[in-house]
Amino acid sequence: MRDDELRSLLRSALREVDVSEPGRDLWPRVVQRLDSRPVPHWIDLVLAAAVVTLLAIVPQWFFILAYHL
């Protein structure tokens, strides 16, 4: 197959893309999604504090924790 035949087949299969302007503004959706993030549950905060406290007491456990994550 020659290059011009391949090129014409590709152009017939793919539509042209107009890149002059985006179809819509996505920034309001980004702001809405950032505002709708859920607040962490208190159990999650307690577990995170416990892990940090244990790592402060026994810093050698950091490598064990890092290995399992």
Structure notes:
This protein has four helices and no strands. It has 69 residues and is mainly alpha-helical. The chain has a domain at 39-69. The protein starts with a helix and ends with a helix. The relative contact order is 0.05. The model has no long low-confidence stretch (mean pLDDT 87).
Q: What is the percentage of strand-forming residues?
A: under 5%
How large, in whole angstroms, is the Cα Rg? 27 Å
Order of helices and strands: HHHH
Q: How many alpha or pi helices?
A: 4
Distance between the termini: 51 Å
Number of strands: 0
Mean pLDDT: 87
Instruction: Detail the poorly predicted runs.
Output: none
Main sheet specs: none
The assigned structural class equals mainly alpha
Helix content: 55-70%
List the helices and strands and how they pair.
Layout: H1 3-13, H2 27-35, H3 42-57, H4 61-68
What are the key terms here?
69 residues; mainly alpha; elongated
